[in-house]
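Deliverable D2.4 — example input (C-alpha cells):
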C-alpha cells in the first residue's frame, strides 16, 4: 500500500455527509430559521490565524472586497492555527478566512485526503452553507529543496532525479509536519535513497514550507514533484455562503492567477519584518493593477 504520509486518502462517506447536513440544519434551527453566521446581514468579518502569511492574505481579501463595495472588518480574535480559523468559519464566528486545502480537510471530520479533484472533495467535506472559493496559484505546502551547489553536483531538478544520487540526507524545519514525506515513502514513489536526519537545517535535501523565506534568501532550488507525491496546500477563501455573492466572489477571484508562492513569501516576509498587513497588501494590489 502507498505510504500514508505521501498520498493519504480518505473517502468522504455518505454517513459523514448526513452528519454534516444534520449539523447544518441544527444551526439553522438554533437561529429560528436563519443560519447562525457571524454578523448575519452585517459586514464580512475576516479572521486570521495570526501568522504573517495569514494576516497579509486576509488583508488582500479585505482590500479587494472593499474595492468592490463590500463592507468588511477584521475579527478581533486572532486564531492560533489554520484549523482554528476553519472551525471559526464553519461555526459562524467569522465570515471569511484564508485557508489551505489539505490543512482544511484535516481540520474537518472527513480527515485528511489527497484526491484527484480537490475542489469536489472540499465541496463534499464542508458543511452546507460554507464555500471553498477557487484557490490562488500560491501555496504553502511541503517542498523539498537543495542548495544550488548540491543541485549542480548531482544534476537535481526534480524529485525523480534524487534516485540517481548516492545517499543524501533528508531533514529540515518542516520534516515533522503531518504531511511531510518520509524517506521510506519517497523511496516507494521515486526510488530514492535518502537518510532521515530530523529537523536539522544542515540536511542535503531540506523539507520546507513553500513560503519559507530561506528559499529566496539562500537561493535554494525547489525540486519539482512530477508524481504529485506531496499534498497540495493552495491558499483559498473559506467563506460563509451568505457572504459569497457575485460581487465578493469576483473580487476575490482577481487574486487567483496573480498571487504566486514566491510573491506570497515576499509579502509575508515584509509583514513578518514589521510592515503593516493592510499597507503591504494595498501596495502590492495597486502595483498589479488589481484595485480600481
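Example output (designed residues):
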Amino acid at each position: 500500500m502507498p505510504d500514508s504520509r505521501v498520498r493519504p486518502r480518505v473517502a468522504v462517506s455518505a454517513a459523514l455527509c448526513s452528519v454534516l447536513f444534520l449539523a447544518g440544519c441544527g444551526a439553522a434551527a438554533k437561529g429560528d430559521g436563519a443560519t447562525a453566521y457571524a454578523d448575519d446581514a452585517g459586514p464580512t468579518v475576516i479572521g486570521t490565524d495570526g501568522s504573517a502569511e495569514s494576516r497579509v492574505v486576509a488583508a488582500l481579501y479585505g482590500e479587494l472586497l472593499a474595492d468592490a463595495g463590500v463592507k468588511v472588518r477584521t475579527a478581533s480574535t486572532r486564531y492560533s492555527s489554520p484549523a482554528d480559523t476553519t472551525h471559526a468559519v464553519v461555526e459562524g464566528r467569522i465570515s471569511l478566512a484564508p485557508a489551505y486545502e489539505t490543512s482544511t480537510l484535516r481540520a474537518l471530520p472527513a480527515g485528511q485526503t489527497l484526491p484527484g479533484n480537490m475542489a469536489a472533495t472540499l465541496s463534499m467535506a464542508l458543511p452546507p452553507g460554507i464555500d471553498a472559493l477557487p484557490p490562488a496559484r500560491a501555496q504553502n505546502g511541503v517542498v523539498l529543496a537543495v542548495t544550488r551547489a548540491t543541485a549542480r553536483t548531482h544534476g537535481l531538478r526534480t524529485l525523480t532525479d534524487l534516485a540517481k544520487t548516492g545517499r543524501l540526507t533528508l531533514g529540515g524545519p518542516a520534516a515533522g509536519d503531518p504531511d511531510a514525506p518520509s524517506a521510506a515513502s519517497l523511496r516507494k514513489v521515486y526510488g530514492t535513497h535518502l537518510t532521515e536526519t530530523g529537523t536539522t537545517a544542515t540536511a542535503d535535501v531540506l523539507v520546507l514550507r513553500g513560503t519559507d523565506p530561506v528559499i529566496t534568501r539562500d537561493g535554494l532550488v525547489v525540486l519539482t514533484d512530477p508524481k504529485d507525491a506531496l499534498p497540495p496546500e493552495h491558499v483559498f477563501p473559506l467563506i460563509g455562503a451568505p457572504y459569497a455573492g457575485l460581487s465578493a466572489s469576483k473580487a476575490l477571484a482577481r487574486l487567483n492567477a496573480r498571487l504566486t508562492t514566491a510573491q506570497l513569501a515576499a509579502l509575508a516576509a515584509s509583514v513578518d519584518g514589521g510592515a503593516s498587513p493592510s499597507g503591504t497588501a494595498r501596495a502590492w494590489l495597486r502595483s498589479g493593477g488589481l484595485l480600481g
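The mean pLDDT is 85.
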